[in-house]
Every structure is written in structure tokens, then in C-alpha cells.
């Protein structure tokens, strides 16, 4: 065995000296004088280095490739607001029609009305809708700023302690400390939980609407921690899949300094938007941040929504345009046929500056365009103005409706899409998987007895129940199952 090793060593020295490539059998840790460094394919997988003193250089290089935790859900910017909004508004057939009329009326040979008068109705409609869309997008900007400026405890490498920072300051690889009832700022891999069994309870109502709590477990090997988790003692590298929008799928592994690996899945991932419940404290490392999180990838972003009445109006306007085209075509053909009956040019046929008269075909074409301007009242642009004003009135009444006000949260109804207010309440089908979706089932405390002494809740005892309450005894506590339809 020693002889074969010596022969391999001399053969390896000879091949390196002559510049020949190494063979696969000779590139082994036994023969290679340098330790091979682990390489990662950042195009097919995500590598996360912890933000501590040991890995801070690797963390600074890799974290630049990943997006920050700042989010932006607005549709427009200061530069793109005007062109993008006008592009969306000209999806309406009426706006395109009146833009065509404005262009025609600016031609001297077909000018019927004053140019400014023709532009006024279209400018008013575009301005009103532009102001409405701008206000709606500005509310999104305020909401984004509120979310980005929320506070969270982030581990600072220099201070070696958790400091209060904003959500927008979170980066991939940072250690985050979360308390009970706090919202998770990013997709975080759970490394520590105050629960002795290493379980963290989550409420995912912001993602899937479910109010029942879900359990997440600490990564294998970190659950039996007696003392608090210390980020400086974390010497592992995390390798996982690229960002995707699958909320229930997540795979990866943690590579330890001794080259051993520990796998983990979605049971250890805390998703952005979830709320910590029944857990005093949880600590984890950020895997996905900002728009790379699963919650943001499932958000398709703001889009221009069209109500049923707007789609119906587009169809009706298109029909009116077709009718107008037929009427103008008949008028142009009739004008050409009527001019043929004159042996000489009629007195209303005015020549150009050179004394030449237009051909009958070209004169009929000009008459076709002129009749479009004359018969423009067939397309009701005032209807769009009226509908936009009605929508603003509907939004005002919705925000000030006391029946749509929630006293517990002190929040009125919020109308975030001003284009589809008239679709409110127009429901054709309701699909429900259980009765709890449309009803409210609560267990209300009434009274209990301890050592022969009775303790009752006076407010719940006096409150009335809708439906038929069911009373039952659980231990020494009397509960009431309240049903609300």
C-alpha cells in the first residue's frame, strides 16, 4: 500500500511539472496538497452566509446579489405616471375615438369646430381619471412606507446584540429576533424558539385566511438549546432552492464546518406576513427578503381593473362607432353621387389656391371625415364623466357608512380599487367549504366555580345570543356555544 502511494505521488509530480491535466483518480484529498474549496452554483440554488464576524466577508459579497427587504407595490413612478396612465385610459374605445376627432379637427381642410373646444371634453375626462388613479396609487405608497418603516430586532455584528431597525434594513443572512404577536418581516429559517420542544406557533391569516395556528419546528440539531441562541456561534452555511411562489414547498440543507449536512423543509420556514402566536421569542436567519419572499411572489401587483359596466360600455361604444362609420360612409357616397349630377362645379365647391378642384373620390373621402366630426355626439363622452363622478360619490358613502364600520378594530371599510366600486355586492355564486366561513362560532365564558365559590362574567351573562345557544359543562366551567348566522 505504501509503495502504491509513493508511485502515485511521483507520477502526480511529473504530470504537474509537464503541464499535463490531472487524472480523476489522482485528484484526491490524499494526494492534493491543498484543501479543495466548496463551490456553489448561484444560478440554480441560493447560498446564505450568516451576518457574523466569521462570515461577514462572504456575506457582504453574496448579499449584494439578493434583493433587500424594501417593497414597492405602487403602479406608477413620477416618470412613468403620465405615459402609463394615458396608455391604460386609451384602452377605452371612446377615448380613442375622441382622440381621433381631435386629430381630425386640427387639420385645416376638415376643421369644423374650434380646436380647443374639441379637446376640452377629452382633456376633462382624462384629467379626472388621472387624478383618481394618482390618489389610489399614492395610498399604496403610504402603505408601503408604513410597512417598510416597521420595527424589528436585527442582530448587529459590531455591537454583538440585537438592535431595533426598520423592515427595509433587513438583508438576507441577518439574524432576526421576534416576539409574540409580532409580524414576520421576511422568510426566515427558524433556529431558536423559547418553547422547550422547539416549536413556534404561527397565524397565517394574512396569507391563506386561516385563523387556526400552525406549528413550525426549529431546524434539526438546534432544538435542544438550553441557553439563548448566539449568532456568533453559528458557523454554518445554508444552501436552499431559488425563490418561488409555492407556499408549501421549501427544501435545503445546512452545511456544518465538518462538511456534514442537515436537511430542512417547509416545517422550519417562517413566511413573511405571518404572526407569531403563543411563543415568547423566536430567532431565525433571513432566507428570502423583499420581493423574493413567497408572499410577494404570489402578489401579482396592482393592475388596471375594469368593472362589468365599463366592459359593457366598451362593447356599446364599439357598436356606436360601427353605426357611425356606416352613416358617414353613406353620406360620403351620397355626396360623391350628388356632385356627379352637376354639369359645372356648384357654387359651394370652393377651389384651392391654384384654382384646382378636388377630385370626386378625394372630395368624398374629405366628406367622410367631416361627417365623423359633425356626428360625434353619437358617442356619449359625457357618460364617462358622469360615471367617474358617481364612482367618487360611491367611495365617499362607503367610507362614511356606519354599518360598514368595525368597532373592535376602529377601522372603516377601505376601498382600494376605485375602478370597480359598482361591482360591490354583485355576487352570483358563493362557494363555501365549511359553515365557519359564513358564520361565527365562539366559545364564550359565562361562569365557573372554584372551591365552591362561583365566579361569573357579568357582561357575557347579560349579552343576548342570536340563534339557540348550547350550554354545557366542561370541568367546573360553564361555556356557551354562540352561533351567529
Short summary:
The protein is 33% helix and 19% strand. It is built from eleven helices and 17 strands.
Question: Can you walk me through this structure?
Answer:
It is built from eleven helices and 17 strands. It is α+β, with helices and mostly antiparallel strands and 485 residues long. It has a six-stranded antiparallel sheet, with no helix packed on it. A four-stranded antiparallel sheet has the order 1-8-9-10. Strand 16 (470-474) and strand 17 form a beta hairpin. Helix 5 (115-148) packs parallel to helix 10 (381-399). Residues 1-37 and 464-485 have low confidence and may be disordered.
Q: What can be said about the biggest beta sheet?
A: 6 strands, antiparallel
**SS-based class:** alpha+beta
Beta-strand content estimate: 15-25%
Our measurement of the CA-to-CA distance between the termini, rounded to an integer number of angstroms, reads 83 Å
Q: What string, H for helix and E for strand, traces the elements in order?
A: HEHHHHEEEEEHEEEEEEEHHHHEEHEE
The counted number of beta strands is 17
Low-confidence stretches: 1-37, 464-485
List key phrases describing it.
disordered C terminus; 485 residues; four-stranded antiparallel sheet; 11 helices; six-stranded antiparallel sheet
SSE order and pairing:
Layout: H1 2-17, E1 45-48, H2 56-63, H3 81-89, H4 93-105, H5 115-148, E2 151-156, E3 161-166, E4 175-179, E5 187-193, E6 199-203, H6 205-208, E7 213-217, E8 237-241, E9 251-255, E10 261-265, E11 269-270, E12 275-277, E13 281-288, H7 294-297, H8 308-340, H9 360-374, H10 381-399, E14 440-450, E15 453-456, H11 458-462, E16 470-474, E17 477-484
Antiparallel strand pairs: 1-8, 2-3, 2-4, 4-13, 5-11, 5-13, 6-7, 6-12, 8-9, 9-10, 14-15, 14-17, 16-17
Helix pairs in contact: 3-5, 4-5, 5-10, 8-9
